[in-house]
Write a structure and sequence with these properties.
Blueprint: H1 3-10, H2 13-21, H3 27-34, H4 42-58, H5 60-64, H6 71-76, H7 80-86, E1 92-97, H8 104-109, E2 113-120, H9 123-136, E3 141-145, H10 148-151, E4 157-162, E5 167-168, E6 171-172, H11 183-193, E7 194-201, H12 207-213, E8 217-224, E9 229-237, E10 248-253, E11 258-263, H13 264-267, E12 282-286, H14 288-293, H15 296-300, E13 306-307, E14 314-316, E15 324-334, H16 337-346, E16 353-357, H17 363-370, E17 378-383, E18 389-395
Helix pairs in contact: 1-9, 3-4
Length: 397
């Protein structure tokens, strides 16, 4: 979809009415019914309807206001809840958004800034985002089309926000060397312009690399939604010395309001866990935030917790562990179909969830072997390692 074609449809009263009246109808039927009968581009309208349906969950502001957007910019956009969360700790007088895109981050960050300059290199995205700001009536965001790095000299701001493009030669990259704009090559220029910088990195970015790559580190933000890590972000504060004694790793899931701040030094703490076969009243699985941060010691210290020798599975006599899903251990057997079936018969089970570690087989294959179906509150952990085990559990929390 061309940006001008999208804007043309959304500037048409007939086009707007059509979209509003048909958001929940079958697009194939609509295409057949209205082909050649509209004054607007029907194909564009139907494509917008498809995006609005998906955006209703991820970015409701887009679907509620029928904003201008295409498929790629929707896929790359920040979710609304993540953008809102970032606005709680990024605020000031003036913000420079160096990679503004379709503008979801800018819209919510602007609520806590007097002025935002949102720079975008892609002209199509710039046109769509500019149209949206007018439609929303947002007046403190100035959209600028151009190369952010070339425009940086002689500018002054409180904050810089940058979400570098991780796509290089049609493949995604985590490596800082392949990001656009070049973060490492231009970080000194950014520090001359703003006193604080937020850099959005890949959810896959290794936290240990942050210490090696960046000075003046104030904090690290690991942000998840519905137990899926969406981004790793760092804040650079130019007023700080080049040490991280006071830095924190902030873990947040915007869906369930899980919020924990971990001193950065805890990231480097490594507890030597033991694994006691009989120490297994409760089984704990770390959330994606705890697993991503590797701050197991912070959450388990003084809790009497043991850990499996090969997997990120923990055991304790405690009934709950912050940052973990907890299961009551009901039975344990060797990793054989015969012994597992005996355990299932003993507990009168034919429906459960199967979690496999160390075996390159699917849960569906094991369901077939065991004669079970998927679902319910019971879980079977199949763990192949030095001690081949099958642990039958029930969901606790």
């Amino acid at each position: 979809m061309q940006s001008k074609d999208i804007i043309t449809v959304l500037s048409s009263n007939e086009g707007i009415r059509f979209i509003q009246n048909n958001l929940n109808k079958d697009p194939v039927a609509l295409a057949l019914k209205y082909a050649g009968k509209t004054s607007f581009d029907l194909k564009i309208a139907l494509q917008l309807i498809a995006i609005y349906r998906k955006a209703a969950q991820k970015v409701p502001i887009i679907s509620k206001n029928l904003l201008a957007i295409n498929q790629r910019s929707y896929e790359q956009s920040t979710s609304e809840e993540v953008a809102k969360y970032k606005s709680t700790f990024i605020s000031g007088g003036k913000l420079l958004d160096l990679t503004a895109g379709i503008g979801v981050d800018s819209i919510y960050l602007a609520e806590n800034f007097e002025q935002v300059e949102a720079i975008e290199l892609n002209q199509s995205l710039h046109l769509l985002a500019s149209f949206n700001l007018k439609k929303l009536g947002v007046t403190n965001i100035k959209r600028i089309h151009g190369d952010a790095i070339e425009l940086l000299p002689n500018r002054v701001a409180d904050w810089i926000y940058v979400d570098p493009d991780r796509r290089s030669s049609h493949r995604r990259s985590v490596d800082l060397r392949y990001l656009k704009p070049d973060i490492l090559g231009n970080i000194d220029l950014m520090k001359k312009v703003a006193s604080k910088i937020y850099i959005k990195l890949s959810p896959l970015f290794d936290l240990s690399e942050i210490m090696r790559c960046f000075d003046n580190l104030a904090s690290v933000h690991v942000i998840a939604e519905k137990n899926e890590v969406k981004e790793v972000g760092i804040i650079i504060d130019c007023s700080l010395a080049n040490e991280t004694s006071n830095a924190f790793i902030h873990l947040a899931d915007v869906y369930n309001n899980f919020r924990v701040s971990v001193p950065f030094e805890e990231y480097f703490s490594r507890k030597n866990y033991t694994y006691e076969n009989n120490y297994n009243k409760f089984l704990h699985i770390p959330s994606v935030l705890v697993a991503k941060s590797s701050c197991f010691h912070f959450f388990t210290k003084s809790k009497g917790v043991s850990k499996h020798l090969n997997f990120q599975i923990f055991f304790s006599k405690n009934s709950a562990l912050t940052g973990f899903r907890t299961f009551s251990v009901i039975d344990k057997s060797s990793l054989t179909v015969k012994k597992i079936k005996e355990s299932l018969r003993k507990n009168n089970l034919n429906k459960l969830n199967i979690i496999i570690k160390g075996i390159n087989e699917s849960p569906a294959k094991w369901h077939k072997k065991l004669g079970t179906t998927d679902g319910g509150d019971w879980f079977l952990f199949l763990l192949k390692s030095r001690d081949n085990e099958a642990i039958l559990c029930r969901r606790f929390i």
